[in-house]
Amino acid sequence: MLTIKSADVKNKKVLLRVDFNVVLVKKGGTTRIADDFRIRAALPTIKHLLKNKAKIIIASHLGDGKESLRPVSRRLEKLLKKKVRFVGECAGKQVEEKVRAMKNGQILFLENLRRHPEEKKNDLEFAEKLARLAQIYVNDAFGVCHRPHASVVGITKFLPSYAGLLLEKETNVLEQATTSPDRPLAVIVGGAKISTKIKLIERFLNLADDVILGGALANTVLKAKGLNIGKSLVEEEMIKPLKKIEITSPKLHLPVDVIVSSSESGERPVRVCGVGGVKNGEKIFDIGPDSLVLFDKIIHNAKTIIWNGPIGLFEVEQFARGSYFIAQSVAASSAYSIVGGGETIAVLGKLNLTDKFNHVSTGGGALLEFLSGNKLPGLESLGYYTNN
């Protein structure tokens, strides 16, 4: 995979695909960005291009295409302390005219790519329209590399294509962690659905030294092992497939006690019980104190830690302790720590612990796909798998 470091971008028109798919909060006629983490993550690549006096054309999607990227362009302008020109379209004559008028070292920010259905269809005609705007294509959007879209895959057929500094960093860190990590390697997997993470769990039962499961996905494993989980969230259709993987492996660590209630609001009585003591009308919402002690020992023994997915219903205060404790435990450990996934990063943000982790990935689905050992179309189109 060729990176931007080897590209001659001096005075060139560069189409930079970023992942600025941020959460917008609208209140009282104003729109603010909930967290600019993904925007800040792309700054090293943008600054590298500015240093080389490139004409930078920034392309991103936002949600399903309904929202405008204009507020995001304003935030980028503030972060760079440099003028960012926003154009209300992402392809066609209007944009081509704006690009022709650009001077070296200027930035043009295109409107939401997903306003065009051709983007998600990987339409080559649309990809060629985007390619017409530039001389070089740079992909710095690790978070969308699992999507075979026009601005991620199709465009590479028309322009010399390179990985940006963020994309290079993401792949280097994750490749090291999955091929030659400092051991012991501990992997913490939380969240709601085991169906989206079963391949990852199966893979790390081979690769890792310890695999910790929490969150609602652990409920499905507990049920597959024959334990009563009451009315807890469960994926019934995953119980049979789970029995085919090593859920009895000594590497796999499940909660030994849990926090239960009959209501997810936390208003009804909340109690701690062993995993075998959940009553029929109760739901599991977090892990208990004995589980925290068990998991803390594993974390502090590890040399490398990968964490994806919250450990409980952290949005409700009574059920946030597990996720908060894990975050603090990993932050306090001497291990090389990698974390990813929007909800997991939100946990770190609430505790102001983001800076305590060695690598905070910008990928959600892309991170899961990479860690599961699947090929990502965006990386494949840059030649990552050919050269690795």
Structure description:
- Monomer.
- Its EC number is 2.7.2.3.
- A hairpin with an 8-residue loop joins strand 12 and strand 13.
- The radius of gyration is 23 Å and the shape is elongated.
- The chain has 2 domains: 164 residues, 3-Layer(aba) Sandwich (Rossmann fold); 190 residues, Rossmann fold.
- It has 388 residues and is α/β, with parallel strands linked by helices.
- The strands form 4 sheets. The chain has a 6-stranded parallel β-sheet with strand order 5-6-4-1-7-8. Strands 11-10-9-15-16-17 form a 6-stranded parallel β-sheet, sandwiched between helices.
- The model has no long low-confidence stretch (mean pLDDT 95).
- It contains 16 helices and 17 strands.
Q: Which band does the percent of strand residues land in?
A: 15-25%
CATH homologous superfamily designation of the largest domain: Phosphoglycerate kinase, N-terminal domain
State the total count of DSSP E strands. Answer: 17
Contiguous uncertain segments of 5+ residues: none
The gross shape turns out to be: elongated
Major sheet characteristics: 6 strands, parallel
- Counting DSSP H or I runs of 4 or more residues, the number of helices is 16
Q: Provide the residue-averaged pLDDT.
A: 95
What integer value in Å does the Rg equal? 23 Å
Widest sheet: strand ordering: 5-6-4-1-7-8
Structural class: alpha/beta
| Termini Cα gap | 8 Å
* Helix coverage percent: 25-40%
What's the short version?
Helix content is 34%, strand content 18%. The protein is of the alpha/beta class and 388 residues long. Helix 12 crosses helix 13.
